[in-house]
Design goal:
With about 260 residues, the chain is α/β, with parallel strands linked by helices. About 50% of the residues lie in helices and about 15% in strands. The chain folds into two domains: about 5-200, 2-enoyl-CoA Hydratase, Chain A, domain 1 (Alpha-Beta Complex), CATH 3.90.226; about 205-255. The strands form two sheets. The chain has a six-stranded mixed β-sheet, with helices on both faces. The protein has a four-stranded mixed β-sheet with strand order 4-6-8-9. The longest helix is centred in the middle third of the chain and has 20 residues, at about 80-100. It is globular and about 55 Å long.
């Protein structure tokens, strides 16, 4: 049986996770979500130095959302089973969003419905300029259940988010870049190389600094400015006291040498 995920750890400090169900356009069932959740958690395992996660899909899609055929056969007729599946979806998406690593979504082809919600959990989106992204639930008179109605307004603003949510219309990768959802949109033939180059660049940074920066930036979307400024001051103070990287960087920039404690 083919694994629903392919894990590639060949790049230093980068884990590439590929959803591998091309025959279903990488649609999500319970098994896929369970192994995805585990793969995210393994990045923080003792002795493992993963600073960047790249999430991508095999074939014609990043992810076409939940596997509706699987849901119809296994979940939809049982309310409790449906709720358990929704809980698994939300916990997996939140694990990706809250991971200390920087998560880059490498978006090829379709990222719709639950697949779009998955993309919204990525910290940085790099898209094929011709990719098609969108919530699309309203096309079937359905509602999102994995965060689409909450995360999209935070990313692109209320009015524009509601436009896409209530119409179910899709945007191209180029549109996503234009409205600030994607960090960049590139031709399909350049997508993988561009994403991996970015991942390698980010992975050169200190892991504690990366985790702190991610935490501060994400909290900025949720708290008043003064609370965010207080958090930034506290995080900078903690990093100053817990990491030698910051002092080394400051002295290197200033052309000075750190004062070392006297030998015992």
């Amino acid at each position: 049986m083919t694994s629903p995920l392919v894990i590639d750890d060949r790049l230093p400090r980068v884990r590439v996770i590929t959803i591998n169900r091309p025959e279903r356009m990488n649609a999500l069932d319970r098994a896929t979500l369970e192994v995805l959740n585990a793969a995210i958690g393994e990045c923080a395992a003792p002795g493992r130095d993963v600073r960047v996660i790249v999430l991508r899909g095999t074939g014609r899609a990043f992810c076409a959302g939940n596997d509706l055929k699987w849901l119809a056969a296994n979940v939809l007729s049982d309310v409790a089973a449906h709720l358990r599946f929704q809980d698994l979806s939300q916990s997996t998406y939140q694990a990706l969003e809250s991971a200390p690593q920087i998560v880059i979504g490498c978006i090829n082809g379709y990222a719709v419905a639950g697949g779009f919600e998955l993309a919204l959990c990525c910290d940085i989106i790099v898209a094929d300029e011709a990719a098609e992204l969108g919530d699309a639930h309203m096309r079937r008179n359905l509602l999102p259940s994995a965060g689409g109605s909450q995360r999209l307004p935070r990313r692109i603003g209320l009015s524009r988010a509601l436009y896409y949510l209530v119409t179910g219309r899709l945007m191209t990768g180029r549109d996503a870049e234009r409205i600030g959802l994607a960090a960049m949109a590139v031709p399909a033939g350049e997508l993988e190389a561009t994403t991996l180059l970015l991942a390698s660049e980010i992975a050169e940074s200190d892991p504690q600094a990366l985790a702190s920066m991610k935490h501060m930036a994400r909290r900025a979307m949720e708290v008043p400015l003064q609370d965010g400024l207080a958090l930034e001051r506290w995080m900078q103070y903690r990093y100053r006291n817990e990491s030698s990287s910051m002092l080394q960087a400051v002295h290197q920039f200033a052309g000075t040498k750190p004062v070392l404690p006297p030998d015992e």
